[in-house]
Amino acid sequence: MILGSLVLANLKMLFRNRQSLFWALAFPLLFVGIFGLFNLDQTTTTTIGVVDRSQDDVSRALIQSLDAINTFKVENRDDEDDARKDLKDGDLNFLIVIPGGLGRSVADGDPASIGLTYDERSPTSAVVIGIIQRFLGEVNLNLVEAPSLLNLSAQGVRARDLDYFDFLLPGFVGMGVMTYAIIGLGAVMTTYREQKILKRIQATPLRVRTFFGGLILAHLMLALVQTALILAAGILILDGDILGNYAYIGILVVMGNTVFLSIGFIVGSIAKNAAAASGLGNAVAMPMMFLSGVFFPTDDLPGFLPTVVSYLPLAPMLEAMRGVALDAEPLWAFPTELAILGGWVILAAAVAIKSFKFG
Amino acid sequence: MTDSTENVIDVRDLVKRFGSLTAVDGISFSVRPGEVFGILGPNGAGKTTVLECIEGLQKPTAGSIEVLGLDVLRETNRVKELIGIQLQASAYFDYLTVREILRLFGSFYHTSVPPDELIAQVGLEDKAGTTIQKLSGGQKQRFTIAATLVNDPKVVFLDEPTTGLDPQARRGLWEFIQSIQQKGRSVVLTTHYMEEAATLCHRVAIMDRGKIVALDTPSNLVHSLPAPYEVRVVTEGRAAMDGLESLDAVVGVDHGENGTFNLRSSEAAKTLPALLGWVNQAGVTLTHLEVKPATLEDVFLALTGHGLEDRPEDLSS
Fold it and tell me: Which of A14, A109, A348, B121 could bond A262 through an S-S bridge, CB–CB 3.0 to 4.6 Å?
């Protein structure tokens, strides 16, 4: 079968071309590795400077309990002036000053004022002030030995063991598949035209569509290999999680990659040579990569950008893929995304066929 | 003219225009079975365009082309099954081996020759497992010709097959091209080397500016010149030689420097004895005597008024 031998020949070429293989496999794996090795999920702790003018049992107990609060890290400051300077410079966001003779005031039942100075620009200040207020309220109740009539029974539930890396993993799949399809196929097409390989093919009875069928099938297979490698590296080595159906992910990869290969095809038709194809391919792929939610949710984009981006091919592909991967949703839970992606498949293929030229 | 059904190729009033440029300007010719047919002309004469129209790679503006009795325009794919094409300066896949490419191209045809048989034919047995980029220029050229033979074609088209090769590799390729023809195939080739056309081709069409200016066997073309020979003599002591013009078959005499005379002759076999008789009678001593047959270059010059290498601009590509 002609198509079979074409696919086989194309796969051989793809895997023997070290340089293109690097971009296809090593490059996205590099991203996976870098992001996987950084611990991106550290819960942010707030450092609170404390100047203890009392230095008695009560003040020390107070500081200890404050430090016991998970989100706080207490830093004992001896030099108040120095601490205030840090506050001004932005090196410290919160400073608590415990007045002298706290133990005595408490024993005497005199109210003591605990000073809190904070950086107004700190986004967490309201939360931190609230926590400290509640903390002091509790301490007050304890001090007057009031019975706890109402207790909050808070129970943390870990819904799913998902973190930022798990969010990134489908993004890397989309990124790797897209950049290689657009830049790689664009370069292949220009090379084929430059070296008159297309014309040589045209000189045989082989149908042009069979030739490109083989080329595209081989690239789709490579995309699935890319996907498998990226997911395997993410899951097995870097402890990522995919909760959904792998077959759905595969279908999304094939759909998305069909669009990207068509774009690569168009790039190859426009560019004069392989270097120009790579430049043009990058110009198309890079903005799409950063805007379409590879690294952060598109909702974080300003203004009307999220709407615009949601109609580009990569964003709906990632949206649906994350739904499958992170929420274990079936494909049909994303009719809008699939419709946009399907529309792109048809549109991009039509433009690719229209723009194609032999020589 | 022979009956058209006997010809492997019949080209009638072929015209090909690119915008305002007329690359091929109404040419007609036929190629007979088993012959090596050459299209000789400078760059930009329209040779490649003619070839690509016959191969079905370009659509003629006007005219008809039949290959093996098939209309090229209507039955392009049936024609492609039967012919082998070598394109000028075309490359093959960088990351496949010689054998893999031949097998792949073979799979495009209904009938194909086993790759190793082709490899043996072109003597690339020890290169069968290497990629094309590692072949030398001559090996590459032999490979591309082997690739034209994957479907055991009836007609083989070679576009400037020896361009860019050193003289030794060129001669090696000539032998190989002759061996293709000896298997009963017809070969159509373009060249701008007159020596190549003279050595390889049974018949040569001389093309210039989109037209065929002459078409015949190389020897007939040369003998169609008024003076197909040049007899060159140098006399001792720069002796004057008057009356050479009246010698048998002499068309004209050019007086060179230092006692050199060039006699343009229509028949060297008549001019030479007459010249030697004249020399004896006049008591002149010759220090040098040389008979040079005219070449296709001279034919081209006589027909077009310019040389084969005179037009560097390439209009054909």
Answer: A348
